[in-house]
Amino acid sequence: MKRFINQTPSASSQLLYGLLPFLLLLVLYMVGSEARLELNPHDKLLPSFSQMADAIERMAFEPSRRTGEYLFWQDTLSSLTRLGLGVLIAAVVGLVLGLATGALPMVAAPLSPLLTVLSLVPPLALLPVLFIVFGLGEVSKVALIAIGITPFIARDIQRRTQEIPMEPLVKAQTLGASTGQILLRVLLPQMMPRLIDAVRLSLGAGWLFLIAAEAVASTDGLGYRIFLVRRYMSMDVILPYVAWITLLAFVFDYLLVRLNQRLYPWNEQGAH
Amino acid sequence: MLEARNLWKNYGDTVVLERLNLSVAEGEFVTLVGASGCGKSTFLKLLLGTETASRGSLLLDGVPIASEPGPDRGIVFQQYSVFPHMTVLENLVAVRGFQQARLTGYLSGNARRAAEKEARQLLDQVGLGNACQRYPHELSGGMRQRLAIAQALLGKPRILLLDEPFGALDPGTRTDMHQLVLSLWREHRLTVFMVTHDLKEGFFLGTRLWVFDKVRHDPQAPAAFGASITYDLSVGDACPATCEQINDEIWPRPALVAV
Q: Over the stretch B217-228, which tens digit does the pLDDT of each residue have?
């Protein structure tokens, strides 16, 4: 008998092991839901899958009686616009800040300590400030996401830039490259896959800030909806919404991984 | 062409190099050998401009050498010497781009086609003609060093610095690389400084051999004295006995290098 640390599942059983917990949770939920609904058909806590399907059909495929909009899609669109804008701003600002502070000691001297301190400010504590300054509209929500993840991306890119060995940088100089050329031709391209990784890692925080901002002040959005229907204990809406958010997050993560592989084939593990 | 006058280098209290006086003529091929930590790489960094002398002066054509790397001194490191995000061809085309004063250093149109043509010729010459579109991580160690050398040459340096360039290569590849470097040295009339761990390589490759070692020792304070050049040999005159003697001196028994 091999030691446990040396035992590995075969390819087929790996898939089975991976799926098993999902199936188990699903079955557990169905049994629980069934049992509660049998006792009380009006129970709201664990709705059956058909109740959830009804709710989603109502939200996604019938226009709202009040506004005429398809709420589910409207919510998705609003939320993704906010998240996308916030993350885009954070990625651009973070890349520029990280690259400049990582590569140029004269820029790092004044900015690096500031960046470290700013990254320790809890972004959610700034939400009231943002509401006061930018009002309750779209700007404050996008700003929260951008402010929340920019320091993380900037510091990550800064560290990654510093990790680039000095040899290629010296080499570029012996070939006549200027500071600008080294930044744009040598460092920036090598930071792009790192930026995509940093964005992947910060998307979780991005969703957190998005839902928090929507919960506090909004008129649509995925986060707004689940906090709104909480008042009616509409678990049949909340649970599919949460599943939908999770699915979106999973898809974005997967797409970013594929994008990285496609755009930067030289960026393989240990490649230099 | 190159001259050192009473050159010292120390980091705080640690003296690395002391009392270096030497002069090198254009077109020489100098190999620098010595034990680890004897200052030969530090000397190369002084030439490169990433380190500056603590005392004395290092003159290139009578002028102190620039305190940052520049296009008159090309370099090949043991590793990380090429740009990992560029294909073999792009690695060379980028050199022409760097030589333009433009911010991005991207070439377009005729300039790019000319640079590509030139790059392909050079790649054929160093034996990388078939690898133009590959990325450095897809190349073997020897091919990567060929690319690094080609890239350095494209910068048209007067001095080529080689910092243990073949240290990570297997012996067969190393012999091929020796031939390549020698032929390029003759063709481009370069002045070459090569740091190596391999005494044999130093003895038979260049025209001149420097052995870096400490002359003075203080057992209580090993950092108090630095190394200087203990042997300055014209390689043609050297006999195998001298080689063995040097080997014993810089790597006291058991000998690490069999000659």
A: 777 877 778 888
Mean pLDDT, rounded, for B128-150: 92
Amino acid at the residue B184: L
Number of neighbours of residue A211 by Cβ within 10 angstroms: 20
Of all residues in chain A, the percent with pLDDT exceeding 70 is 99
ipTM: 0.87
Q: Cβ contacts (< 8 Å) between A174 and chain B: which residues?
A: 48, 69-71, 73-75, 152, 155, 157
Beta strands in A190-270 (DSSP E): none
Output the pLDDT for position B30: 92
Domains of chain A (ranges, CATH numbers) = 65-225 (1.10.3720.10)
Contact list in A for residue B86 (CB cut-off 8 A) is: 189, 266
For A180, nearest residue in chain B (alpha carbons): B103
The alpha carbon of residue B157 is apart from the nearest alpha carbon of chain A, in Å, by: 8
| Interface check B151 vs A, CB under 8 A | yes
Query: Whole-model pTM?
Result: 0.87
Min distance B237 CA to chain A CA atoms (Å): 34
Q: Can you give the length of chain B in residues?
A: 259
**Which amino acid, one-letter code, is at A209?**
F
Whether A189 shows a pLDDT value over 90: the answer reads: yes
Alpha carbon B49 to its chain's center: 13
Cβ-Cβ contacts under 8 Å, A264 against chain B: 85
Please, what are the domains in chain B? 1-72+160-259 (3.40.50.300), 86-156 (no CATH)
- DSSP percent split of chain A into helix, strand, coil, nearest 5: 80, 0, 20
Going by pLDDT thresholds of 50, 70 and 90, the confidence category of residue A272 is very low
